[in-house]
Amino acid sequence: MTNPELWREKCVSDSNSYHLARKICNMTVDCEKRETELKSVNDIVWELCHRGIITDKNLWLNLFKDDEDLYWLGFKAANKTANREG
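Request: output the structure for the sequence above.
Response:
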């Protein structure tokens, strides 16, 4: 997240943003960049669901399409983090 103030505001006002940011922070660690970046909303949602970060694919498909900031958070999570061990 490059703009903490934006995310502080989003997480207070939007429970979906808060849920995603909290899960990403608690479940992931930084990792090497993926060989092939996931860019499409569908690929990002599938990856985050596969890793257990989100559960409702349809909800997140719509949220990422409608909210560019949320899309970029999902993009970075899917491409620049790995689930914690244990």
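The first strand starts at residue 28 and ends at 30.
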